[in-house]
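# nightly structure sweep
# worker-07 picked up a monomer target from the shared queue
# config: single-sequence mode, recycle default, output format = structure tokens
# input follows
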Amino acid sequence: MADDAPDIVFLRHGVTQWNAERRIQGQRDVRLSVEGQRQAAALASALRWHFPDITDRTFYASPLARARQTMGAVLETLGEPFDRVTFDERLKERSFGEWEGRRWQELLDGGLDPDGDPEAFFHWRPEEGGESLAEVAERVKAFLSEMRSPALIVAHVGIYRVLLHLLNGLPPASVARLPMAQTRFCRFHDGAIDWFTATTDL
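# output follows
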């Protein structure tokens, strides 16, 4: 990625019931659970605390409901209108095609070994309209090429993984299975990444 890649504060959406059930969400439009709503509020408060000038950034989000709700909590906390957000299709989660709605354990039982061969998982494309992480990286790369200012992005763990690959130069095998807790957020800048933690003990 170019050295002048924009400064990005990145939030993953709050938890959903499907997250809790270890179901594959992909691009299914699953809403936040009650706990996810609490996490979104906590993330918003922590974001305002750590980045008092956050409203100077351009706001982007995935159009999927769980990301929209999380961004909504941020906007409410900041007193910002909903129409200042650009919802971009390229920030959607990886499509898992026919696997969406099924449990991760079913995928593992089917013979896929994401932890044993993470690079293969990065390039694996699920059937029935699924995407590989490599394909997700291409659409995110196109999105990044159009950015012209520091940004706040609310999206998904798959987007976080490809940002690490594109902005920090981590190889596919290193990012394909990296987790990102819903109570943490990060800032990508100058080839580095800074981490911040929110608390739901409000």
